[in-house]
Design a protein that fits this description.
It is a single chain. This protein is 2% helix and 51% strand. The protein is mostly beta strands. Strands 2, 10, 12, 13 and 15 form a 5-stranded antiparallel β-sheet that branches. A hairpin with a 6-residue loop joins strand 12 and strand 13. The chain has 3 domains: 30 residues, no CATH class; 118 residues, Sandwich (Jelly Rolls); 78 residues.
Length: 252
């Protein structure tokens, strides 16, 4: 029998809320419960596997916590642009830091990151070119021109939490005829390997998957969406969204 309603949730004011559980989580009124919508885009997937993020290609994961250099491709033109970098520290705890690009269009974080899963423009000045978040020549995130936000269908569950994947939405489109995408939703537990949790093919369409019983994902687990096209000239555009609730392991 399908569940058609959710139990009422105590609000911060001490009364009983009239909103569904998910609305209460979004409002920050359920202790230890958080909502995440992780979305990504890759504008040119062909017959090599690529992750769904705006840099393209296969994402490189850090093996240790690193300070990040935030650089605008416009150099000094983007002096004073403020960027917030979000991710996890060496202990897999959530961290966030805002940096302001200096005269050369560059800034370095004081916080070190084991994972970077989002960056966005957090000030009033809009950059005029791509902004890259890097260390040692490796790009861990990119804010593409005009987006003011990274597009990365990549995330890692913080320490002390269990994530629940509620829904995935993936689109694949191309102007080429008779081309299709094969898409994988994959997870990697701590000290493990990536394994496929869901896999499907898309032909010029949208794949919507709602998990009636949400998929539990343990703390410190990496999640990624990746795709491969059916030919070398497919030029597929892939977008993906992951709808997630993550709950503190000590929460009721």
């Amino acid at each position: 029998m399908a569940i058609t309603s959710y139990p009422k949730v105590m609000t911060m004011g001490g009364g009983v809320g009239d909103y569904p559980y998910y609305m209460q989580v979004a409002r920050g009124l359920v202790d230890g419960h958080k909502r995440l919508f992780k979305f990504g885009f890759n504008n040119n997937v062909n017959n090599s596997t690529e992750d769904c993020w705006d840099v393209g290609g296969v994402y490189t994961y850090q093996t240790s916590a690193l300070a990040m250099t935030v650089t605008s491709d416009a150099g000094a033109t983007d002096n004073d642009v403020q960027v917030t970098v979000q991710g996890l520290d060496a202990s897999y705890n959530e961290v966030s830091e805002a940096v302001t690009l200096a005269g050369s269009g560059t800034a370095t974080t004081t916080q070190t990151y084991l994972r970077v899963f989002r960056a966005f423009v957090s000030g009033s000045q809009e950059p005029t070119n791509n902004i890259n978040v890097t260390n040692g020549g490796t790009t861990y995130a990119r804010i593409s021109t005009g987006e003011n936000q990274t597009l990365m269908a990549l995330w890692t569950v913080p320490a002390g939490y269990t994530a629940y994947l509620l829904q995935t939405d993936v689109t694949a489109f191309t102007e080429q005829n008779n081309k299709f995408a094969t898409v994988q939703i994959q997870t990697r537990e701590l000290n493990g390997v990536f394994r496929t949790d869901d896999k499907f093919a898309i032909v010029e369409n949208i794949h919507h998957q709602q998990y009636q019983a949400p998929l539990p994902i343990l703390e410190k687990t990496d999640i990624r969406v990746r795709a491969i096209a059916s030919s070398s000239n497919a030029h597929l555009e892939i977008s993906a969204g992951l709808d997630i609730i993550y709950i503190e392991n000590t929460a009721p």
